[in-house]
Design brief:
Number of helices: 15
Strand content: 25-35%
Structural class: alpha/beta
Number of domains: 2
Bound molecules: uridine-diphosphate-N-acetylglucosamine
Number of strands: 24
Largest sheet: 4 strands, mixed
């Protein structure tokens, strides 16, 4: 049985959408609970498949997890395990985030090596070389990363070739328990890295330079869970996804509980395209006025235009008058959505890392398959703006990162339902009895 979203497009959307807590902030925060035994409390946590995977991993390591209304509680007092099995890592690459905390606290870890990914090679060499710099011995055995530092980690200078979000997070978590001073150069500056650093500070760590590309950590011998519950920051990618809606469907929307300061570049670019966007405190209001203008978009680490919004802005650009150029600089295969968008009538040419989008076109509803998380969001946007009915398959990707998407969109007047598709048993040479 496969689930799909059935969307009847072509209706303008109007109303308010609450923004959820950020997936990419809650995952490292949960991994950080491994650094010190005790009870951690979180609020504004998103109910997502990736969060369930991370909680399952923590439970396997010996943590106790409980959700009480708004509060998510994680007790790591009896954690003894040091292994992240392949079965969980293959579901979610961010499981690699337990590597740093486990080696730092227990002196050893065994974490399945993530494989390739639908959006590109996504190596983990920065994580491993960085841990080696901190004194860990790393071996790859039978598809697992074995990391050892029986006598603890020692501070060092780490320089990344390009800023990596999860590698910065992993090494930040390792460095807070290392002896002495660690410098991370060309560090990632994403708000989620800053959020993790602030959590570590609330646990007693000394960290300077958060939000810059040069982070300095003064290691300490022990940390404690933060005293106050931690509020997960708003999901800037979810917010950015919904901000594009008025340009695709017409209408006007207001995002609630957003953090406009984390969306400066996307907001600037959407305004250039002709969307009217106003920020007021935690509210973001968007509507489209007149025809959209084409854009040149180049994805880059924060504060550049996020790769996690590349697929979504491509849908918006199908509605702009003229040629848009969208260059993907982070993940070499992150263009799988192009092929599905073309099936919906989009005119997009691919030239190596650049997609050239010709607009405006009237998109047409179609049956499409999502290849990854952000591609699935892009197909939902396209279907909402398209004429007729679309069916979107591959919802396991969408559910990893978008909380209650159908409910949020329905509240704006979208015609969207989740349905179950009973796979028909094929008869004949390809049927169940067939021999291959
Ligand atoms: C994180 C986000 C993901 C987002 C991405 C880029 C989480 C859980 N995921 O992923 O949603 O799309 O940032 O904003 O926060 N690289 C290497 N070697 C490494 C690590 C990275 O070459 O060891 C390269 C990558 O292939 C990529 C670039 O560095 O080209 C940046 O990727 P990175 O920031 O590491 O992405 P993630 O942390 O995996």
């Amino acid at each position: 049985m496969r689930e799909y979203l059935e969307i009847e497009g072509g209706y303008p959307l109007r109303g308010e959408i609450p923004v959820s807590g950020a997936k990419n902030a809650v995952l490292p925060a949960l991994a950080a609970t491994l650094l010190a035994p005790g009870t951690y409390r979180f609020t504004n946590w998103p109910r997502l498949l990736d969060l369930c995977t991370m909680l399952e991993l923590l439970e396997r390591l010996g943590a106790r997890v409980e959700s009480r209304g708004e509060i998510l509680e994680v007790d790591t007092s009896s954690v003894e395990g040091v292994e992240a099995p392949y079965e969980l890592v293959r579901r979610m690459r961010a499981s690699i985030l337990v590597l740093g905390p486990l080696v730092a606290r227990f002196g050893r870890a065994r974490v399945a090596l993530p494989g390739g990914c639908p959006i590109g090679k996504r190596p983990v060499d920065f994580h491993l070389r960085g841990l080696e710099r901190l004194g860990a011995r790393i071996e790859i055995r039978h598809g697992y990363i074995l990391a050892r530092a029986e006598r603890g980690l020692s501070g060092a200078e780490i320089v990344f070739n390009v800023p990596s979000v999860t590698a910065t997070e992993n090494l930040l978590m390792a460095a807070v328990l290392a002896r002495g001073r660690t410098e991370i150069r060309n560090a990632a500056r994403e708000p989620e890295v800053v959020f993790l650093g602030e959590m570590l500070r609330a646990m007693g760590a000394r960290i300077e330079g958060l939000g810059t590309d040069h982070i300095v950590v003064y290691g300490c011998s022990g940390l404690e869970p933060p005293r106050e519950p931690l509020r997960i920051i708003p999901d800037r990618i979810e917010a950015g996804t919904y901000l594009m809606l008025p340009g695709i469907t017409g209408g006007e929307i207001t995002l609630l509980a957003a953090e406009p300061r984390h969306l400066e570049t996307p907001i600037l670019r959407l305004r250039e395209a002709g969307l009217e966007i106003e920020a007021e405190g935690q509210r973001l209001y968007a509507r489209a006025r007149g025809p959209l203008a084409p854009l040149e978009i180049v994805t880059a680490p924060y504060p550049g235009f996020p790769t996690d919004l590349q697929a979504q802005i491509m849908v918006l650009m199908t509605q702009a008058r003229g040629l848009s150029f969208i260059t993907e600089n982070l993940f070499e295969k992150r263009f799988q959505h192009v092929f599905e968008l073309r099936r919906m009538g989009a005119e997009i040419d691919l030239d190596d890392r650049t997609a050239v989008v010709r607009g405006p076109v009237r998109l047409q509803g179609a049956e499409v398959e999502a290849s990854d998380l952000r591609a699935s969001a892009c197909l939902v946007l396209a279907a909402l703006g398209a004429e007729g009915i679309s069916r979107i398959y591959g919802l396991e990707h969408l559910d990893r990162g978008y909380e209650r998407m159908e409910a949020k969109l329905s509240a704006l007047g979208a015609r969207i339902v989740r349905k179950t598709h009973e796979e028909r048993e094929t008869l004949g040479p390809c049927g169940p009895g067939a021999r291959g």
